[in-house]
């Protein structure tokens, strides 16, 4: 068996073209483009690179972006004051608070303080709670949303399937589990303390990997014909690697998202979908 690779690059390209039309329609109707504020504290290079990638994605679909950079020495009060201005600014429709933040900054307090209507990253407790209860409107973190979209586009059947999530983060593992639960999967969330993790993974019809350990999941962890969605992005001396041994798993799985080129390209496009939805909700009052 050789897995069908789910092409995130091709899907992202098509979705961007569709979003360009939708953003143009919104801008023509309202006289302004949906705009995201990218809020960064300090000088972390990875964070700066991610901010530039978001800015480029915005340009590609016709969205606006505003870069807010505070110094490494910023105080909690200064950061909160800047965030309050973004919350109140009608020209800002989405806010992203990038990590990491300096040690003196309470990141959780910033998330709680953000206007949940502008939370295009889906990290505010209100959005997390509405996702849990499946009570729209809510924003889903872009990474799991992209993984789900790849599966939907490939025609994956969810109802009654056993989905195993490896990883329990608030931004990938948990929301991915809820998205699949709401589509009638039976869901198991696993983590580093799970007993017989390989055995649990082998029971999965849909295996979602979000652990951040390069090539940890081997071919004998995967049920023949399973769907394997790899969210891993670990930089190694041999390049970017996912959480599974791609060559080995590809010989067992039925569908597989490659790394690179799988879930990654779709993530920022999902962020743009959230931004458009936020602008539409705010415009509706």
Q: What name does the CATH topology of the largest domain carry?
A: Rossmann fold
What's the architecture of the largest domain in CATH terms?
A: 3-Layer(aba) Sandwich
Q: Total strand count, please?
A: 11
Note the beta-strand portion: 15-25%
Count of the separate structural domains? 2
Spatial order of the strands forming the largest sheet: 1-11-8-7-5-6
- The secondary structure category is alpha/beta
Distance between the termini: 52 Å
- The tally of helices reads 10
Residue stretches low in confidence (pLDDT < 50, at least 5 long) are none
Tell me the name of the CATH homologous superfamily of the largest domain: NAD(P)-binding Rossmann-like Domain
CATH class of the largest domain: Alpha Beta
Helicity level = 40-55%
Helix and strand sequence: EHEHEHEHHHEHEHEEEEHEH
Specify the biggest β-sheet: 6 strands, parallel
Rounded to the nearest angstrom, the radius of gyration is 19 Å
């Amino acid at each position: 068996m050789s897995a069908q690779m789910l092409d995130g690059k091709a899907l992202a390209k098509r979705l961007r073209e569709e979003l360009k039309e939708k953003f143009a329609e919104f801008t023509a109707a309202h006289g302004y483009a949906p705009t995201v504020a990218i809020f960064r504290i300090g000088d972390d290079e990875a964070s700066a690179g991610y901010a530039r990638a978001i800015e480029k994605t915005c340009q590609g679909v016709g969205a606006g972006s505003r870069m807010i950079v505070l110094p490494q020495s910023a105080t909690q009060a200064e950061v909160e004051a800047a965030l309050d201005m973004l919350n109140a600014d009608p020209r800002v429709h989405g806010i992203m608070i990038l990590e990491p933040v300096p040690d003196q900054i309470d990141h959780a307090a910033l998330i709680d303080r953000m206007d949940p209507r502008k939370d295009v990253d889906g990290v505010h407790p209100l959005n997390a709670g509405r996702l849990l209860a499946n009570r729209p409107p809510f924003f889903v973190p872009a990474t799991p949303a992209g993984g789900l979209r790849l599966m939907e586009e490939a025609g994956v059947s969810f109802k009654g399937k056993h989905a195993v999530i490896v990883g329990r983060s608030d931004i990938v593992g948990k929301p991915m589990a809820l998205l699949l639960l709401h589509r009638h999967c039976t869901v198991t969330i696993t983590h580093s303390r799970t007993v017989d993790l390989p055995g649990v993974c082998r029971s999965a019809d849909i295996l979602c990997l979000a652990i951040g350990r390069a090539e940890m999941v081997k071919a004998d962890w995967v049920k023949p014909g399973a769907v394997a969605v790899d969210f891993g992005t670990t930089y190694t001396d041999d390049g970017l690697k996912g959480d599974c041994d791609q060559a080995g798993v590809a010989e067992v799985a039925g569908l597989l998202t490659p790394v690179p080129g799988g879930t990654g390209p779709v993530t920022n496009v999902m962020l743009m979908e959230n931004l458009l939805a936020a602008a539409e909700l705010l415009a509706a009052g």
